[in-house]
Prior knowledge:
- The protein is of the alpha+beta class and 600 residues long.
- The protein has three domains: 5-45 and 70-232, Phosphoenolpyruvate Carboxykinase, domain 1 (3-Layer(aba) Sandwich), CATH 3.40.449; 237-304 and 392-599, Phosphoenolpyruvate Carboxykinase, domain 3, CATH 3.90.228.20; 305-384, Phosphoenolpyruvate Carboxykinase, domain 2, CATH 2.170.8.
- Strands 11, 12, 13, 14, 15, 16, 24, 25 and 28 form a nine-stranded mixed sheet that branches. Strands 1, 4, 5, 6, 7, 8, 9 and 10 form an eight-stranded mixed sheet that branches. Strands 2-3-18-23-17 form a five-stranded mixed sheet.
- Strand 15 (287-291) and strand 16 (297-300) form a beta hairpin.
- Helix 2 packs antiparallel against helix 5.
- The longest helix has 21 residues, at 579-599.
- The protein is globular.
Amino acid sequence: xxxxxxxxxxxxxxxxxxxxxxxxxxxxxxxxxxxxxxxxxxxxxxxxxxxxxxxxxxxxxxxxxxxxxxxxxxxxxxxxxxxxxxxxxxxxxxxxxxxxxxxxxxxxxxxxxxxxxxxxxxxxxxxxxxxxxxxxxxxxxxxxxxxxxxxxxxxxxxxxxxxxxxxxxxxxxxxxxxxxxxxxxxxxxxxxxxxxxxxxxxxxxxxxxxxxxxxxxxxxxxxxxxxxxxxxxxxxxxxxxxxxxxxxxxxxxxxxxxxxxxxxxxxxxxxxxxxxxxxxxxxxxxxxxxxxxxxxxxxxxxxxxxxxxxxxxxxxxxxxxxxxxxxxxxxxxxxxxxxxxxxxxxxxxxxxxxxxxxxxxxxxxxxxxxxxxxxxxxxxxxxxxxxxxxxxxxxxxxxxxxxxxxxxxxxxxxxxxxxxxxxxxxxxxxxxxxxxxxxxxxxxxxxxxxxxxxxxxxxxxxxxxxxxxxxxxxxxxxxxxxxxxxxxxxxxxxxxxxxxxxxxxxxxxxxxxxxxxxxxxxxxxxxxxxxxxxxxxxxxxxxxxxxxxxxxxxxxxxxxxxxxxxxxxxxxxxxxxxxxxxxxxxxxxxxxxxxxxxxx
Length: 600
C-alpha cells in the first residue's frame, strides 16, 4: 500500500481488527475534500452554504450528544498512575488495550477505513513530526485536510523507514445486522480517548467531534508531543505565536499561553492601536519549539488551520478571524440564516429576526436558548488569515524572544510583570489561574489553576512537566526567551474592567518588545520587574491615577493571602514538585514579608 513496511503492517492489523468494507489511503487533494463533503451532504449532516455569500463553505450539525471535547473520558495510559499524575485520568494500559480491542473489533463494518497520513508542521521541518490517523469518518478526513498537511508529500517524507505516531479513531457505529446509518454516527455511551505514552499511540472511540476525533489536535500536538518533547529535549506547548514589528521595522516573535476565555486567539490576530506597530499571526493555539544549532529557541505552529470557537467572535472582537472566514470553511453547530449563511452569538450586536438553530430548529430572538452551540466551531486554513505571517511555514521556525503567561484575574495580579529568571518565569507559569467567581475588591475568588494553560493537555505528571521546564533552563541558559506574566482582566471596586484590552494590549506588547532589548526601564519588585509609570505608553486612554496604580502595583497583601493556596496546590503533587519552584515560592514569601514589614 505504501513504501513504509511498518505502516503497511499496522494498516493491515487495524483492518483485521475493525473489519471495514473498504480502505482508502487519503491523498489530501481538493477532489478528495469535496468527495468527503459530498458524503456528508448525502448523509444529511452537512449543507453547502449560499455560494454567493460564503463560497465553498459548509454547515455541519453534529449529534447533540457529541458537541465538545470530553475530558472525563480522556485517559493517559502510562505504566503507573504516578507517571500520569494527579491531574490526569489514568488507566492501566493493559486493561485499556483490552477494552479498546473489544470495542474496535468489527467497529467499521459497512464503512470505509480512511488512512490519513499527516504532518504536524510544514513537511520537512526539523521541528515537525508525522502521524497517521485511521478513521471511519468523512468529517474527520475533511477537517484533517484543513488542520494538517495530508497526502503523498507526507508519505514521501516518511519514507520506507520513518517513524510515525499511530492514531486510531472510530465513531463506534458499525452498519451491520440490519442497523441503519444515521447522519452523525457516534457512541457517547462508550467514549474513550486514550493515550499510550510508552508506544506513543492514540486510540479514540465513540465521538466524531473536534479534539476527540481530530487526533492531530490536542491528542498528538500536546499530550503525546509533550512526552516526546520531554524525552527529546524540546517543548510542546499550548501557545499562540505572534510576530510583532515596531515602527523601525524590527521584528520579534512572541509565544503566549492563556487558559480558555482569556483572549488567546484575539491576541494572536491583534490589531494594534499604537501607530507603526503591526501584529501578524504565526499560530493561534499550539507551539512546538526546538533549539537550533545557534542555541536559539525556534518555534513552529504544527497546525495548518484554525479550529476556533465561533461564539464571541465578531468584527468588534477579532476582525482578522472574521475576514479569514469569508470562504472555504467548515462551520459546525452554528446557526443558519434564512438566506443560507451562518450566524452565532457575538457575530453581530443583534441577532437576525429568524434563524435555524444548531439543532436544525426554527429560532427567534428571545427563544431562551442560544442559536449556536456555545462550543460551535469554525475550521479554516491558516493561510486565509489576512495577517498570517509570511514565515508561518518557515521550515526552521521563527526565533522566540518572549514567552507570555496569563490568566483571568480580577485582583492581585498586575497588568504585566517580567520574570527576573527562567526559574521565576517557570514558577509564574506553574501558578497560572483564573477566578471561577467574581472577586470582590481585596479578596481572592475561587481559583482554577491551569499551569501553562496545559492542565487538560499534558501527557504526563504536571509537576514532572515543570521539571522539564527547569531542566531546559539549566541546559540552555542565556539564550532563552524572557518570560512575562500578563493580566488583561483587573477590575475596580465596582466590578468593571480597568484595562480596555483588545487592540490596546499592543501597549503591553510594546513594553515587552522594548524589555527584550533592555530599551526601557523597569522597577524591581518581589514579583519581578514591573513597568515604571512613564515606561508604559498610556497616552489618551483616559485612565485615572488610581486605575493606573491598581494595574501596576504589587498587591503584597493579596499575594500573601494567595501563598498558602499555592503551597497547597504544590503539595497535591507530592515529591514531584521541582526544588527550584519550592525555592521560588519561599523567596517570594520572604520578599513579600519584607515589603509588608516595611509598610507597617
